[in-house]
Amino acid sequence: MLECPYCRTPLTENTAACPKCHLDLSRAKIVLGPAPRLSHLGVSDFSGCLSDAEEKRIIRAVQHFQNRFPQSRLAIVFREFSPEFPLSAHLFWLFNSSGLASGDRKGGKNRDVLIGIDTARNVAGLTVGYGLEPFLGQEALDHLMRLAVPNFQAAEYADGVLEIVRGLSLLMEGVCRELRDMLGLDYDFAVEEKAGEY
């Protein structure tokens, strides 16, 4: 179920603005300002919290994910977000304003994923495009994020992100297998699996 990233009021895909708090993208841009452009490599470390080796590991994980699921782009942002607003509101703003999705990937065609790590509060959030929402249930995504909580609480950001990316990859693979079986497609995921450690 869609919900307002600020006040959590239930929404539909076609809701232009939250009926309760009136949040929409233009208001978010006014309050939060211009969004930074995200790295084309998939990792934007605005906090400078990653070592070079950690950043390379995460970039490899992003590339591996995108090779397995080329219909999706994955972006990971490390930043100190303002505590005035919930992390979900910041991620809504970034997801829709930072150039993550191209013009032809809007609405139900958007299958992108944004993971945001607030390095000021050691918490993380995740948002997905409308094209993935019917397939990736909120309960499964919440569980995935909970698995990484100990890493983020210990400021082990790279390990936490890698845990999320691994779990997300398993979720996506499960969805693809279900669709393959439901549609009677002949596709072997093991062939696409790339060997190697993140």
Question: Strands, helices and their partners?
Answer:
Layout: E1 2-3, E2 10-11, H1 25-32, E3 43-45, H2 52-68, E4 74-79, H3 87-97, E5 113-118, E6 123-128, H4 138-147, H5 149-153, H6 157-183, H7 189-192
Parallel strand pairs: 3-4, 4-5
Antiparallel strand pairs: 1-2, 5-6
Helix pairs in contact: 1-3, 2-6, 4-6
How would you explain this protein's 3D organization?
This protein is α/β, with parallel strands linked by helices. The protein has one domain: Diaminopimelate Epimerase, Chain A, domain 1 (Roll), CATH 3.10.310. It is built from seven helices and six strands; from the N terminus they run ββαβαβαββαααα. It has helices at 25-32, 52-68, 87-97, 138-147, 149-153, 157-183, 189-192, and strands at 2-3, 10-11, 43-45, 74-79, 113-118, 123-128. The strands form two sheets. A four-stranded mixed β-sheet has the order 3-4-5-6. β5 and β6 form a beta hairpin. The radius of gyration is 17 Å and the shape is globular.
Instruction: State the helical fraction.
Output: 40-55%
Structural class: alpha/beta
Number of domains: 1
Low-confidence stretches: 194-198
Q: What name is given to the CATH topology?
A: Diaminopimelate Epimerase, Chain A, domain 1
Beta-strand residue fraction? 5-15%
The H/E string reads EEHEHEHEEHHHH
- Characterize the main sheet: 4 strands, mixed
Number of helices: 7
What's the count of strands? 6
CATH class, please? Alpha Beta
Rg, rounded, reads 17 Å
**Average of per-residue pLDDT values:** 87
Shape from CA axes?
A: globular
Please name the CATH architecture.
Answer: Roll
| Alpha-carbon distance between the two ends | 32 Å
What is the spatial order of strands in the main beta sheet? 3-4-5-6
